[in-house]
Specification:
Length: about 400
């Protein structure tokens, strides 16, 4: 058994379905317990994102319960978070949520990645369980109970436009993304928006996550002589490896990553942030951030010892659910779902809202300002807050 936390207890239970983190609190006889069932990759290549999602949600759950819970017409509600590891497997993620809903009584489901969320969406619809997913790839008019909680990256809302306007020497760009669903979506979005910004897309290459030698696809990419390369959605480890091997191959151009990767981590992986001077990133600036982000970083670090920037938008699920519970005054999942549709809530980055996707009135997306930063003199500084738009360019 591994203990996790101070005011709450967390238990890791081994089993065929993975790890279960159970946070529980003492409650009075009048209290109602509202169980949140989360499936996330706590192991494997996406574990950094999964643990950030789990910890961000747990931190808010603890704060809500420490403040006395949420008053509803059915009594005071205390929250409980149960988390199972899916290692980014769609089948395992669906099995996890089935177990959490059917056995643990979860009244809301949380998921992380697109493939897992897509597997869960039909189940959530059939059981009428609000489903909050940290994937922006899921919007679909048939899934009324599924709510993406992470805004689409700046490829969808002006990242390349900012580059074209503020870095006019860059004319020729390329993409280097994973050969998975995330890479497929970001590659298309990057290409379409780069062209809209008047940039020439000269190459597109993909790689397999976890690869330790990327030189073959990178050599092919470099034959097109790009001036900037977008790594959208690749993750810090893959980006660091790609940057290091690109430099070894003689590449002198710039980098962009509208998928929101920590430039601080990438800099450490490549031998110093000076190696990525001029790098434009869709988030996680080191300076110039809103006060709300600094406050969140301090709370998160105090609670868990190490800050994970990925937590700053993945906390939206629990923030939106808390607001829906308070606004509706009900623990009925159908009432909560109806409240979430069109809900406005405070995110770490500013005002957020669930709004209809452009052209798909029954498909919901979340909008809030997203940060764009640029590495200058060894520091990634905020250069713009880009409004997100309720639109996805589908592959």
């Amino acid at each position: 058994m591994k203990r996790f936390g101070t005011n709450s207890s967390s238990v890791i239970l081994g089993g065929v379905l993975g790890l279960c983190w159970l946070a529980s609190w003492p409650s009075s006889a009048a209290d109602q317990e509202f169980v949140i069932g989360m499936t996330a990759p706590l192991t494997g290549p996406l574990a950094e994102f999964g643990t950030a999602f789990q910890k961000a949600t747990l931190l808010v759950v603890e704060e809500v319960n420490a403040a006395g819970g949420i008053p509803t017409k059915d009594g005071v509600v205390k929250l409980r978070l149960n988390v199972l590891d899916d290692a980014n497997s769609a089948d395992r993620g669906l099995a996890n949520i089935r177990r959490l809903v059917q056995q643990d009584g979860a009244k809301a489901a949380f998921s992380l990645s697109g493939p897992v969320a897509s597997a869960i969406a039909p189940f959530a619809e059939g059981r009428k369980v609000p489903h909050m997913t940290a994937s922006w790839m899921v919007p679909d008019p048939q899934w009324r109970y599924t709510f993406p909680i992470v805004a689409a990256p700046p490829q969808f809302s002006g990242g390349w436009s900012w580059v074209a306007k503020n870095m006019p020497d860059i004319k020729r760009v390329a993409t280097f993304v994973p050969d998975d669903a995330v890479g497929q979506w970001t590659e298309v979005a990057s290409r379409v928006n780069a062209r809209k910004a008047g940039l020439e897309v000269v190459a597109q290459e993909r790689f397999t996550r976890g690869s330790t030698d990327l030189t073959a696809p990178l050599r092919r990419l470099l034959t097109a002589d790009p001036q900037a390369i977008d790594f959208g959605g690749s993750g810090a480890g893959n980006v660091g490896l790609a940057v290091r091997q690109l430099r070894e191959l003689g590449y002198k151009g710039g980098f962009a990553d509208f998928g929101a990767t920590s430039t601080e981590i990438v800099g450490k992986l490549v031998g110093g942030i000076n190696q990525i001077e001029g790098y434009v990133s869709g988030g996680y600036a080191q300076v110039g951030l809103p006060d709300t982000v600094h406050s969140w970083e301090q709370k998160y670090t105090a609670r868990f010892g190490r800050y994970q920037p990925e937590s700053s938008d993945r906390v939206n699920g629990i923030l939106a659910l808390e607001e829906a519970l308070r606004k509706s005054g009900s623990v009925d999942p159908e009432v909560i779902r109806d409240t979430l549709a069109g809900l406005k809530f405070k995110s770490i980055w500013g005002e957020a809202a669930f709004v209809p996707m452009e052209g798909e009135k029954n498909a919901v997306m979340v909008t809030y300002p997203v940060p764009l930063c640029k590495v200058k003199d060894g520091v990634c500084a905020l250069v713009s807050m880009i409004p997100t738009v309720p639109n996805i360019i589908k592959p």
